[in-house]
Amino acid sequence: MSSSKSITPKNLQRIPGGVNAARGFLSAAASCGIKRTGPLRPDLCLVVSEEPATAAGVFTTNLVKAAPVLLSRSHLEKGSARAVLLNSGNANACTGVPGLRAAEQTANATAIALGLHADEVLLCSTGRIGVQLPVAKMLPGISSAALALKKTPAAATASARSIMTSDSVPKQSAYEVKVGRKTFRIGGMSKGAGMISPNMATMLCVITTDATVPTSFLRKVLGDVTSRTFNCITVDGDCSTNDTVLTLANGASSVEIRTIPEKKVFAEALHAVCADLARAIVADGEGTSRVIELIVKGAKTEADATRVGRAIANSQLVKCAWAGADPNWGRILDAAGYAGASLDPDKVDIAYNGTLAAKNGMGCQDLKGEALLRKIAAKKEFSIVVDLHLGKGEARLLTTDLTEDYVRLNLSEFSL
Hints:
With 416 residues, this protein is α+β, with helices and mostly antiparallel strands. Helix content is 33%, strand content 26%.
């Protein structure tokens, strides 16, 4: 696993626009009253390609899968799509056959509003689990969004806001990418703040590009990039029912991704967008105050490094220590010890921002060094390296602390 830290190669230039940055894509948001409390807020949006597009998706690994996940997986079997309908405030998960029918109804309504076939529509939902989708409220919103589609950055931002639940900010990223003498664009939006854990965090993400990308490669590269970005973040260790990452490629730029160098550039661009969005999700974690880049190296295997990294990143005791600006390396070593990986505690080194907290499994700092470690742990962002000294396996994750606000925010989902 590699870090979800953003990369920006020389051939990538940041641009505004989110899902509308790529040529031939439009979006719009609407307010339907799906969210149960508070004033009427945007809670539905459409992302639409003006041209046929290849498409791929990565979905939750949870055995309990929401209706929109099941329907989108089915529609993606042919490898193409034209539109994505997203809603917040209701997950349409654990809703049985009625939930599947509701998903089909909204897909059909979207297809009719846009003049498409129903299997060209993909769905994403987020919000309260176990509540039937209010289709009657959504149908007017679908029609309204279909009539309001625009290519502007403002429309993209409105769409990103409409899928927020406990998120505090909209999450977007976009790049213009140079390939020879031509350029293509790639952009995306995501939501996510709680129930975030590796193996598809609780999140929705839509990525659009105006490059021509073969379906087989799009599927492969999306899976590869997801494993190195969205699957390398964790806030609270929970894996959701609705996690979805979708990518649509419509070819409007006339740039074709065929050769090995072109595929490498596209993979770099996709990674840059996903890394930006993954980091934004962690930085916006529910009830968190710090972002920590955790690097586990020197493991016997990459799988062992991943096990140790996830055990540390999801440890409630470790997270509480971080919330208190306490560089408690003992809790880190404890979590590494129960991770189920090969480990010799007498060989483990632990460092905060390059300053050793433990050497060969024991504390190694005097009072001055401990004060420096506490100062590092009080920062809003810092890195921790755990070196097992057993091999070449390495894993990188982005994680957070957890504060008392996490409990307050998750006492009820009725605030969605």
